[in-house]
Amino acid sequence: MYEYSLRYVFDVRHNTEEKNKALLKFVKDAKIDDVCFIINGEELNHSHLTAVETEPWLEEIKTLQKRLAQLGVTTSLNPWTTIMHSDRGFKVNPELGFKTFVDINGDKAKDMACPADPKWRQYITERYAQYASIHPKRLWLEDDFRHYNHSPLKLMCFCPFHMKLYQEKLGHTESREAFVKALLTPGKPLPERRIYLEQARHEMIETEQLIEQAVHQVSPETDLGQMTSFPDWHAIEGRDWAGLLDAQRGNKTKHPRVVRPHLPAYNEGSPIMYGRDFEKYSAITAAYVGNQAELYPELENSMWTRQVKSNNFIAFQIITTALLGAKGILLNIFDMMGNGINENWGYSKMLSDIKPFVNKLSAERLDLETLSGVKVLVDQDSAFNTQTITGKMVEELLPQDKQWASLLGAFGIASAILPVNQQDISNLKNEIIAISGQILRGMDKDLIRTMFNQNKVLLDGDSVQVLIDLGLGKELLHIVGFHWHQCKTGYQSFEQADGHQVDNVLDPRITMLQHTGSYLSLAYEEDADVQVWSSAYNSIDEKLGNMMTIIDNNVIVLPISTDLKYGWEAQYSSYKEGLLKQMLDEVGQVDYLVGMPNVKLRIDHERRIMWLANFTLDQYDEIKWHFAVKPGDEVEILKYIRGNSQTEKVEVDISGKVATIKKPLAPLELLKIKF
Predict the structure, then answer these.
(1) What is the distance between the alpha carbons of residues 139 and 250, in angstroms, rounded to a whole number?
(2) Which of 429, 463, 518, 550 could cross-link with 531 by S-S, CB 3.0 to 4.6 Å?
(3) Over 448-487, what HEC string results?
(4) In terms of DSSP H, where are the helices of 537-598?
(5) What is the CATH number of the domain that holds 666?
(6) Residue 106 placed within a domain
(7) Does 317 share its domain with 392?
(8) Contacts 24+ apart (CB under 8 A), 186-193
(9) Residue 539 CB: number of other CB atoms within 10 A?
(10) Which of 382-395 are b and which e, b meaning 16 or more Cβ less than 10 Å from the residue's Cβ?
(11) Are 253 and 334 part of one and the same domain?
């Protein structure tokens, strides 16, 4: 069954019986399975609570816990602070006595803890043992359990205590300024980078172990859960996903990995943009935490009224967590200052209406490890090896391995995220692999050769540069010359696919001027097997050099970098979609949708089940996909309809390599299709 866990805040100083009754009524009407009480959250937060200050929260929750149990509803806890999200005018209570962190610029926090401070570690384990005393089903660690995004400060921690730790590992004294400069210095990473990342990694795992021991000593049955943020930023704190999550389990035979992935839409923006970020953040997090983890993604409606999201969009967010293999959802749909339940917003009807459908979806959940399609490589350790360009911004350490995931998803090309630390890459054979950013810097040359020899490969400009730096540019790609050209310099203006046609447009053009990275101009050996599919042009139609190419019928090259602000935004073009699909047809077999932009496709390796999700406001009158393996002549479609689910058998029309199901796909709709 798919679990609804309602994140709920009451004001311990201002709660009423009327609000309690409204909560209990909502729980019944909305088919809520678990109420996750937020303690000391947002507007009600007034710094880190002492044991005495915590007790009134727990006493009030215990009373509600008994009443919820009578309804068959469990209780979980979500303390809103570990380190503390941000400075909001408070200071750490002298009674607690722990120190605050210092960021990369030398600025000192007022209310945010140093994550290695022994007194803070003692404090947080004592509080979590206190929370565990009411025996919650789950006890969550908030996503302030991280080294970044603690406004108004930057990456931490560079306090005197941490600097002493760093200096001991360096073997000499070094100022914070010198250490930070070395941490970000261009070129091959210096020892300071590894020392910082390993310290950040291990201190969080050690703290998690202390919390786990304290919690399970008091309440052995309680599952600890970890709330997460952006996986690329977690890489900058050296997060070891398996190490951290297994530390919170303690007895691994009894407790699962429990994770709340970030769903990147606190407000209802464009569903198309939500779809791009869904791949970059939610899908990559799901891959990192592993197929056996229990996922309860975060649905948050900041600022928590109907002004920020429609009910249809909320329902769509919940339903599409099926694409992550989620077991349930954490619903943060009411505010965090004690207003309680608002029955006028229609949430209970919406949630109860879709519950039968999400139950059906979760009964046969998507298996992330058996997905077919392009394998997008990601690496939790990428920050250890990334080379900066200017050395002036922490953002230069961000891994860019997420770019293909987002682009392929938007183009309706079947794909799967593959963390390189979870599988022996040398065992990959006859796959199409997508690589972006500097992920290859973490692999030895023989492994890279094996990977290229056994598979088809998609590369961006940054990954090509890494191969050149490793001395493999000529060996694997026949490259004999290269030069980077930044955008908006008057050099390149657009890319043109000469001799090709997309959507009845001959020689289609795609911008290279704006909202894109730099252009890597490549020269190849004269006798090399290189098919040029597009070329770079300037604004007066002068051809400048090769753009997209296929090398040895094995490697597809998209020679651009990632812009730190815009990413690959210019690549989200129907002309690029058509061009890339034609190129994929040249090198291998992959499933992709036809004429259905921004519809996501997931399909299992054995071609038993296919998931389609329409991240647009357009309706598609029929479903068409280019198949890698010919399907049967009939499918079974599971869809949401009128407060329930409907299963229907439909014929499949085959024409060449394209299959057609003559059934519409509505806006913001997900279908599960069984062959």
Answers:
(1) 14
(2) 550
(3) HHHHHHHCEEEEEHHHHHHHHHCCCHHHHHCEEEEEEECC
(4) 574-587
(5) 2.60.40.1180
(6) no
(7) no
(8) 186/387, 186/388, 186/389, 186/390, 186/391, 187/387, 188/387, 189/384, 189/385, 189/386, 189/387, 192/166, 193/383, 193/384
(9) 11
(10) bbbbbbbeeeeebe
(11) yes
CA of 264: how far to CAs of 137, 273, 280, 418, 590, in Å?
26, 9, 9, 21, 28
pTM: 0.96
Amino acid (one-letter) located at 599: V
- d(CA 396, CA 26) in angstroms, rounded, equals 46
Which amino acid type is present at position 367?
A: D
Whose CA is closest to 4, among 264, 366, 348?
348
Residue type, 360: K
Long-range pairs, 237-240, Cβ under 8 A, ≥24: 237/146, 237/147, 237/148, 237/155, 237/197, 237/200, 237/201, 237/204, 238/196, 238/197, 238/198, 238/200, 238/201, 238/381, 238/383, 238/384, 239/201, 239/204, 239/380, 240/201, 240/205, 240/380
Quote the distance between the C-alpha of residue 579 and its chain's center.
27
Relative orientation angle of helices 347-363 and 311-319, to the nearest 10 degrees: 20
Interacting residues of 497 by C-beta distance below 8 A, sequence separation 6+? 507, 508, 509, 510, 533, 534, 548, 575, 579
**E strand or H helix that includes residue 5:** strand 3-8
Q: Which segments in the chain show pLDDT lower than 70? A: none
Number of residues assigned to the chain: 675
Where do the DSSP E strands lie in 74-132? 74-79, 100-102, 108-113
CATH of the domain at 58: 3.20.20.60
With 0-12 / 13-18 / 19 or more C-beta atoms within 10 angstroms meaning exposed / middle / buried, residue 210 is middle
Is residue 255 a contact partner of residue 138, using CB atoms and an 8 Å limit?
no
- What is the CB neighbour count within 10 angstroms for residue 621? 9
Pairing of strands 530-532, 549-551: antiparallel
Q: What is the pLDDT of residue 633?
A: 93
Written as six digits, the tokens of 555 are 């490697």
Q: Is the CB of residue 475 less than 8 Å from the CB of residue 415?
A: no
**What tokens does 286 get?**
């799901």
Query: What stretches of 10-99 adopt beta strand conformation (E)?
Result: 34-39, 74-79
Peptide bond into 84 cis (omega under 30): no
- Alpha carbon distance 3, 217 (integer Å): 27
For residue 267, tell me if it sits in a domain: yes
Find the CATH number of the domain harbouring 550: 3.40.50
Please give the helix or strand (H or E) that residue 502 lies within, else none. Answer: strand 501-502
Q: Give the strand pairing for 223-227 and 258-260.
A: parallel
Cβ–Cβ under 8 Å, residues 258 and 293: yes
pLDDT the model gives residue 478? 98
Angle between helices 118-132 and 51-69 (to 10 degrees): 30
- Same structural domain, 387 and 533: yes
Nearest to 473 by CA among 386, 389, 404, 557: 557
Main-chain dihedrals φ then ψ at residue 339, nearest 5 degrees = -70, -25
86: which 2 tokens? 């941000």
Q: Is the peptide bond before 136 cis (omega within 30 degrees of 0)?
A: no
